[in-house]
Amino acid sequence: MAAARFALLITPAESTDEERADFSDSFRRIDPGAPALSVGELSTQRGDGIFESIGVVDGHAQEVEAHVQRLAHSAALCELPEPHREQWRQAVAIAAAECGPGEWVIKLILSRGVDHGPAPTAWVTAAPAGDFAAARADGIRVVTLDRGYDSGAAERSPWLLLGAKTLSYAVNMAALREAHRRGADDAIFVTTDGVVLEAPTASLILRFGDRFVTPAPHGGILQGTTQISLFAHLEEQGFTTEYATVPTADLATADQAWLVSSVRLAAPIAAIDDAPLAIDHAFTDGLNAYLLSARD
């Protein structure tokens, strides 16, 4: 992804402010290349915050409501102040208007703020998306990586914040580097007791005949907005979709598989742990054509 071309600071509104309709005076456009955060900012010191990445196609921000709702879900898990949803919708609309033709990405960030400060810090950025044409067309190779906890950890230890989209992505980035060291493009996390989770920055969809399966959104899985949208699309096409506990062994029996996310969209998997997997290029092209269409 290119450097941000647009940035907007937000003074977070109280979620209980139901009478307010216009939040324009709570936004301040800034130079995206200029210093803007305090050195005491907890997002940079501790990764103490949450974020969302929204795909934009030809100026249309995709599935804004799903992302705003997930931002609120992450805020609740992290005990951050509840975002005012309409304020964030308006911020996204301003950012989308600044996006040019083609594919862009808007990021929403909500931090706990400055250490011992009075309020959280919030901002929105927009930047051109990377070129994912090769991943969508040719597929990606993935490896499975042990996530380091069992499938009951999220329920047993909620303070781990599993299932929240936090700014603490060091583990996710380390997993991608490990995948690259192993000659792969991406990774699929699995639990210590052999249950499939998700990729570091994407959801997993497996195909078994006319049945499409994704790991059930519990046990520390962040439910993907793109996966939800694709399931609705597949159901409209007459396919069966299912949320399930997926044993690691089932990866070897899938007919096809994809990693799906808001910006890269649907990347077909060509191999898992060096075991080749078939790619239906025409079907994948159809998935990405849908994902590139305007979706609300």
Automatic annotation (TrEMBL):
Q: Which InterPro entries match?
A: Aminotrans_IV, Aminotransferase-like, BCAT-like_C, BCAT-like_N, Class-IV_PLP-Dep_Aminotrnsfr
- Which GO cellular component terms, listed alphabetically, does the Swiss-Prot or TrEMBL entry include? cytosol
UniProt lists the family membership as follows: Belongs to the class-IV pyridoxal-phosphate-dependent aminotransferase family.
Protein's UniProt name: Aminodeoxychorismate lyase
User: If you read the UniProt record, what top EC class would you report for this enzyme, in one word?
Assistant: lyase
Look up keyword Lyase and say if it applies.
Answer: yes
Q: What are this entry's molecular-function GO terms?
A: 4-amino-4-deoxychorismate lyase activity
What are the protein's UniProt keywords? Lyase
Pfam families linked to this entry? Aminotran_4
Annotated EC: 4.1.3.38
Record GO biological process: carboxylic acid biosynthetic process
